[in-house]
Structure formats: structure tokens, C-alpha cells
Specification:
The chain is mostly helical. 72% of the residues lie in helices and 0% in strands. Helix 5 runs antiparallel to helix 8 (165-184), helix 8 (165-184) packs across helix 10 (206-220) and helix 14 (300-332) crosses helix 15 (337-378).
Amino acid sequence: MTSKIAYLDGLRGLAACVVVVSHYFQVFAPSVFEGRAEIEHFAFERYAAVTPINLLFNGNFSVCLFFVLSGFVLSYRYFRTKDSLPVYSSALRRYFRLAVPAVLSVVLAYLVIVFGFGYYDDIRGMTLSSMPDPSIASASFLVMIQEAFYHTFFTYGMTYNPVLWTMTYELFGSFLIFAFLLLVGRFKLRFLVYLVLGWVFIDSYYLGFVLGMLLSDLVYSGRNWLDLIRRPWVNFLLLIAGLYLGSFPYLGVEGTIYALLVWQPGSGFAYFPFYHVIGSFLILIALLNSPWLKALFSRTLFSYLGKISFSLYLVHFTILCSFGSFLFLQLQLLLPYSISVVLTILITTPVIFACAHLFYRWVDASTLAVLARWSKRMLLPITNRRKERLRAGVEERLGQ
């Protein structure tokens, strides 16, 4: 098995596309997130917001899929081999793997501010979106550097590029996984630790990392326990349940098909991330047990989307708030609102994907290649000692 699992990358690619769509809605159809009739532009908004249709633009659910997938992917090699070396290798690289592309995305957003290319604030009077304007961030180079290298990864910072709120979760969640694997990964006690972590993070996004790692454990630590439920009808039910929970809406759920999921209104429990994480967990189980879904998400299109998914995630928002907003501003002078939105999306989307492709080739792929060589050199002494011990053991057995 290669270091990447094609169908998991394909699912990540689809999720990244949904995040892009979610920000189009957040800018041009904000009522689906805010639930205010006075800012509706289209007749479908109120209905779409509180039905499973919101899966098309439920970016938070997609982010939870990212977290569950990270938990699975960062731990599966350890559970397959019980070799701690890949864990150390991943830990050495993790900050830099996230930071290099993320920092450059902040630099891109900073350049938009410095050169006055941010047009989102100019269209807010027409779109009625209350989404914060990233172009009002400080034009100070030192402030930008501090935000890029520190706040983005340690304080949930997202001033210049709002999608980067996930980076602190990714970094801390990754090291939660690494610590778990190194401390209790070999012991049966780990299942008790799963329970404890699940309880501690029950309504936090970190639950996604814990459940993804648990699923990896169940699949790769000897017996594949998912074989016990490998039935087409079970997969169908898991998929339906996962999509239902994953479509838990941004708005209030009173009077909707989601009302039964809120067992104690006003309790302060974070139902929104909880159900999105659980839905992601169920969908990943269905994918792992379905040859058909595996084949679908391994197809060339999804594989490509998975390859550029991180780059797509990082650059799309800045392009939407600059080029996309400028384009809409010009179209709105000549055309009705709905036609201007459709044309903006049709023209801006290829630009976003072209930039994501270039960002992947020049930044993300290069970062991965450099870090792979660097971590290999850093861990070479450990690898050599292992080879020497193995050779000595073989020679000793032959001598006997």
C-alpha cells in the first residue's frame, strides 16, 4: 500500500469542492447561513438551508471530513506495522507541511490588501453578506508574518485568510494522534483512552481526529473489524445516516427534520460540530466497506481533486474576494443579480482551479518532496541502527 490511499484522497477532493461552493453561497446567498428573510435573493434559500440539500454548500461538514480523514491517514501506517518510525517522521514534518503552503496563502492575501485588489467590501451592499472582509486586515508586514507563522497554527488565527481557522485544529489534532500512538498505541489500554478522549472532546472538532484514528485501528490492527458489518444494506444505512447528520444545518432546527437530534435545547452542547463529525465518521465507514464507493472515489477526476485539495482550500477564498468580487461588481452594473451571480461563478471557478493547480505544483508538491528528503536524512541514523541490529541478529542466528 502506498503512502496515499486513492479513494480517501478522492473524498477529500470532493469535500474541498464543497468548501468552495459554501463560500460562493456565503457571499452571494447569505440567508442560507444566517436565516434572515430580509437578505434572501433566491426562492430556494430558506428551504435549502434546513434540508439535506445543504450538503451542497455545508462547508463545515466538509471540514469535519478533513479532520476524520486526517485521524485515519496519519495513523494507519502505524497500526499496520506497529513501527514508530513513521510517527516520528510525520511529527517532524507536520508543522512545516501545513505551514509552508498556509503561510504562502497568507502572503497572497496580504498582497491583495497591499495592492488594493480586495473588492469584497464593495459588493456587500448588494449581496447583503455579513461575512467579515479579509481585506481590512493590517497592511503591516510584521503583523502578517506573526499571523502567518504563529496565530494561524496556535491561536486559531484567520485574519488574512478565513479558511485557516482549521490549521490550529489540524496541528494540535495531529500531535494528539502522534502522542497517542507513541504512548499507548501498542497496548489494549488504548481503547479505554479512546473512550476518555471521546468524552473530553465530545462536542469539539478534535473528536474527528480521535474517531478517524479509532477507525484506522479497527481496520489495520490485525483483524479488520469492519468485516463484521460488511453488508450492502448496512453500508446504505450508514451512508444515509451520515448524510443526514452531516447536513445538520447552520440555522435553528425547530420545526425541521433535525429537531429530534437536539435532546436538550439551550444546554450549551455544540450539536453543530458534533453531528458533522459523527456524520463524517459514518460516511468513512461506508466508504471503507464499499468496493463501489472505493472505485468511484479512485477515479481520475477525484484523484486529481484530492491531489490539489489542500491548495484549492487555501487559495479559493482570496480569489473569490478579489477577482470574483471585482467581476461581480462589473456585471452587476449591467445585469440582474441572479445572472451576475451565475456568470461570476462560471468565470471565477476556472480561475480558482487554475490557481490551485499552479499552487499545488509550485508550492504544495515541492514542499512535500523537500520534507520527504529532509525527514529521511534526519531519521537516517535511526534507520541505520535498525539495519545494523537486524543484520547482527541474522548473523547470530546463522552462527547458531
